[in-house]
Write the structure tokens for this entry.
Amino acid sequence: MEALEAIAQRKSTRGYAARPVEEGKIDILLKAGNSAPCVGGIHFAVITNPAVLKTVNEKSLHLMKTSGNAFLMGRAALQGYMPLYGAPLLIMVCSLRNTYSEANCAAAVTNMCIAATDVGLGSCYVITPTAAIASDPGLQKAIGLPLDFEPFCGIIAGYAGYDPYAATGTPHGKRRESISYCR
């Protein structure tokens, strides 16, 4: 697949098949993340352990329900909602806090989402798990988060499955273009 084709076809996947992602495909995602523009270092925490994914999912859901944010609370109130959407892979992108941390991590996840499309995986950019991981030293240790590194964002990935939210009308589609020119 050509790069522009993968960019155009990329979409957020919110339902995954119960099928693990092959190590070779995980390596491709990590290589894509490492190829992103970056000022300073980042760390990738690759999580495929079902028990850890379940813990991150449960903690994320609890934080969404108690966030005070109307959108997050509404999403968390949906019947059967899971913040990780049943994905078998979560890669958290972490950094030492600096002026560019968020941009560095977001660029890495964007590259990984495009690479996921290229290798036939569904993916979704996620931020919700960051608070769950940041608030739990035991979880930080379990995922191998280096001292002084913070999770900023992540990607969930896997083979696309049934998306129970597609039929609910819950908005998560493509944005309209908003462009201005100064020529």
